């Protein structure tokens, strides 16, 4: 073996001429794969297999217990904790992008490694994401390892549905109390490509997902827990900070303060502290960088502990709401 040969290369070389094992080893008997064939299918069968499930999901999640807006690192972390603790709750996540994950496919400035300050590593332990322990902080070798792992765990929960390439365009609100208070009662959705084209086409009306807790006539069903919205749409941008910007128009009492300059130590603690229930419009929670934008907190740049932990904190509050 040459001194530059890797262990993988060595094992590959030792396989040459030996038996190769892969998923199709028992199906393919000929050396040139000439006996390989797929089971037959009709094109319409493929179409029905997809669309029937999608529309069944749209029907099932037309009323949801938890609506998470945005599938970035904070939203996915929250989804994991809620789904794991309460398999009976219907949790739906609306993600405007085709690819869920938000900014968590890379660490920072397009670098691969993801940094998390302790004790956020405990969440990595829970979802089995390996890391290098650097003492006060840990390093995941590629941010995509964190994101793909949490995403795949969340997608496996039977009570979770992700509608990606779908944008939240507005909130559904209803009166709550006699003094002009309102509560969130759902979200207004559209295909993201439609949302991006409202200026180029005539009216393209949206769809709605309603929060649980209402009777057929729209009045409050007091025997049922009211559903909640958790918004994790990130800092201000073309789609970002969506609910923060919308809710202050509804609330009238608060403003979107805008995120402040980078300060890792202050930002991460503050984002966790300020994430959770929004006081002003009922049944709305925030986590992640949207909290920083709403409350005028520092940004933390390329360190992701507060994203996971703020998602977990918001999830903790939401679970307490459903447990009460
Ligand atoms: O596509 C957005 C992204 O995946 C999605 N989103 C935004 N608006 C939406 C809408 N409807 C549906 N109206 C929407 N989806 O929300 C997701 C937000 O993910 P993110 O990674 O941007 O947010 P996060 O708060 O989870 O993580 C922020 C990561 C950052 S930014 C930052 C800095 O700038 O200093 N530092 C960190 C760690």
UniProtKB/TrEMBL annotation:
Domain of life, source organism: Eukaryota
InterPro entries linked: FAD/NAD-bd_sf, Thi4_fam
Record key words, sorted: Iron, Membrane, Metal-binding, NAD, Thiamine biosynthesis, Transferase, Transmembrane, Transmembrane helix
Membrane-crossing residue ranges in chain numbering: 61-82
An example molecular function term from Gene Ontology annotations: transferase activity
Protein name: Similar to Saccharomyces cerevisiae YGR144W THI4 Thiazole synthase, catalyzes formation of a thiazole intermediate during thiamine biosynthesis
Annotated organism of origin: Maudiozyma saulgeensis
Swiss-Prot/TrEMBL GO biological process terms: thiamine biosynthetic process
A Pfam family of this chain: Thi4
